[in-house]
UniProtKB/TrEMBL annotation:
<comment type="similarity">
    <text>Belongs to the DAMOX/DASOX family.</text>
</comment>
<keyword id="KW-0560">Oxidoreductase</keyword>
<dbReference type="InterPro" id="IPR006076">
    <property type="entry name" value="FAD-dep_OxRdtase"/>
</dbReference>
<dbReference type="GO" id="GO:0005737">
    <property type="term" value="C:cytoplasm"/>
</dbReference>
<dbReference type="GO" id="GO:0019478">
    <property type="term" value="P:D-amino acid catabolic process"/>
</dbReference>
<dbReference type="GO" id="GO:0071949">
    <property type="term" value="F:FAD binding"/>
</dbReference>
<feature type="binding site">
    <location>
        <begin position="376"/>
        <end position="381"/>
    </location>
    <ligand>
        <name>FAD</name>
    </ligand>
</feature>
<feature type="binding site">
    <location>
        <begin position="90"/>
        <end position="91"/>
    </location>
    <ligand>
        <name>FAD</name>
    </ligand>
</feature>
<dbReference type="GO" id="GO:0003884">
    <property type="term" value="F:D-amino-acid oxidase activity"/>
</dbReference>
<keyword id="KW-0285">Flavoprotein</keyword>
<feature type="domain" description="FAD dependent oxidoreductase">
    <location>
        <begin position="48"/>
        <end position="390"/>
    </location>
</feature>
<keyword id="KW-0274">FAD</keyword>
<dbReference type="InterPro" id="IPR023209">
    <property type="entry name" value="DAO"/>
</dbReference>
<dbReference type="InterPro" id="IPR006181">
    <property type="entry name" value="D-amino_acid_oxidase_CS"/>
</dbReference>
<dbReference type="Pfam" id="PF01266">
    <property type="entry name" value="DAO"/>
</dbReference>
<protein>
    <submittedName>
        <fullName>D-amino-acid oxidase</fullName>
    </submittedName>
</protein>
<feature type="binding site">
    <location>
        <position position="351"/>
    </location>
    <ligand>
        <name>D-dopa</name>
    </ligand>
</feature>
């Protein structure tokens, strides 16, 4: 064997041995912790999980864990505000419509990821249906929603969902389906999540973490008396997980009234999906259409997808927003009665996108750290599905350590 190849093989071997050593040390440590926890459990002491992030992903994960009897601390630099003013986190700006993946802007790079997304989507559908029984308190409700497609293959739905018969082909739409879709009023819903968590004993901390989470995991666990950490930091996972695949997909929503004064009141949602693949170097991005009734008397109009754009300080004068407004009016002509003065607010948000899609897995280096981020334009849709899967991963660690450990 040539010398250089020998050297490479030797390095690989050393690397593997090093990894095995790390796993063995960790296995031993976790086995010890697990034993402690089992006896703790007997003494009615539930394990504690520290969640970084107070958006829809972090708060739903927190509630799911609390419902299962875990103790939870949520740490975030910003939380959703009970009043719809001030600087909002992404989870408040969401159109918050349940969408069947790949949906409007849920990009999926492979079939496996799409299949996983569908499971999360269906878990979310079931949960939001349940929450919609008590809309006033939860902010979740069901609304007839029509999804239009410009390419036939995209309208993939479970057979139970009804296909539309008539289509307006002038707009380039070739297919569509409609179904009762869950939606949430994000201001009410985020407060409901917060209240539920608080009532179940969640501890909330206002703080900001800097640097890689895996480097400070031990200190954080010690400080907050937690055994595991969830990283639900959305777009900031770029820094906290050192994940270069995370990037923003800027989106815009125009808030107008829906009180019947400028056009007949609209009670159903309409969306045109155009996104299959988009060009990431294109700063202008793509605009698609969504028209979402919100609350009793508002409409949220969108949308836009601009990759790698961080600036949230935009107004109606920004040409792509103006073009988006025109496009929405062209698609639904009764909206032509709305002028610039009728736009009550321009909401700009950064969807936490990730090449390779959502990251829901244990950290490869720090095994007590679980990542749950990169939900792009489907964070509300996936929030419950991901929380359920994440909590099952935690159950495996705490309830059946032998099985979990043997899989490493
Ligand atoms: C215009 C627009 C329309 C959308 N429409 C829909 C839709 O119709 N349906 C749908 O399902 N989704 C939609 N989305 C996507 C959805 O909003 C996101 O996927 C979702 O909000 C992501 O939630 P998150 O909890 O991961 O992130 P965030 O809401 O961004 O929350 C991240 C949390 O982490 C905290 N954090 C971050 N960094 C740190 C740090 N260093 N230290 C401490 N705390 C930190 C933040 O303070 C915050 O509390 C839309 C998004 C936009 C912008």
């Amino acid at each position: 064997m040539p010398r250089s190849r020998k050297k490479v093989n030797c390095e690989r071997l050393c690397f593997s041995v090093k990894r095995i050593k790390v796993y063995m040390t960790w296995n031993a440590k976790l086995k010890f912790e697990a034993k402690e926890l089992v006896s703790d459990n007997k003494a009615q002491k539930a394990p504690r999980v520290l969640i970084i992030g107070g958006g829809v992903v972090g708060m739903t994960s927190a509630l799911q864990l609390l419902n299962k009897g875990y103790k939870v601390t949520v740490l975030a630099k910003e939380y959703a505000s009970p009043v719809s003013s001030g600087k909002r986190i992404t989870s408040e700006i969401a159109g918050a419509l349940w969408e069947w993946p790949p949906a409007l802007c849920g990009r999926h790079t492979n079939e496996k990821s799409l299949e996983r997304a569908k499971v999360w989507g269906m878990d979310g559908y079931a949960k939001f249906m349940e929450l919609a029984m008590n809309s006033k308190e939860t902010g979740a409700f069901l609304r007839r929603s029509i999804f239009y497609f410009k390419d036939k293959g995209s309208a993939m739905m479970p057979n139970s969902l009804k296909k539309l018969g008539s289509l307006n082909t002038d707009t380039g739409v070739v297919d569509a389906y409609q179904h009762m879709a869950p939606m949430v009023d994000t201001v009410t819903y985020m407060q409901w999540l917060y209240k539920q968590c608080r009532e179940k004993g969640c501890h909330f901390v206002h703080d900001e973490i800097h640097g890689l989470l895996r480097d400070q995991a031990e200190d954080l666990k010690k400080k907050y008396k937690a055994q595991l950490i969830f990283n639900c930091s959305g777009l900031n996972a770029k820094e906290l997980a050192g994940d270069e695949d995370v990037y923003p997909l800027r989106g815009v929503i125009l808030k107008v009234r829906n009180d019947g004064s400028l056009m007949p009141k609209l009670n159903h949602s309409m969306c045109i999906s155009i996104i299959k693949e988009f060009d990431e170097s294109d700063k202008e991005g793509q605009s698609f259409v969504f028209i979402l009734p919100r609350g009793d008397d508002k409409l949220w109009l969108g949308g836009m997808v601009q990759p790698h754009q961080w600036d949230r300080d935009l107004t109606l004068d920004y040409p792509p927003i103006r073009r988006m407004f025109e496009k929405v009016k062209e698609f639904y002509p009764p909206l032509r009665n709305y002028g610039d003065d009728d736009v009550e607010e321009v909401l700009v948000g950064l969807r936490p996108a990730r090449h390779g899609n959502v990251r829901l897995e244990w950290d490869h280096v720090c095994p007590s750290l679980l990542h749950n981020y990169g939900h792009g334009g489907l964070g509300v849709t996936f929030s419950w599905g991901c929380a359920i899967e994440a909590s099952a991963m935690v159950d495996r660690v705490f309830k059946r350590p032998q099985i979990y450990l043997s899989k490493l």
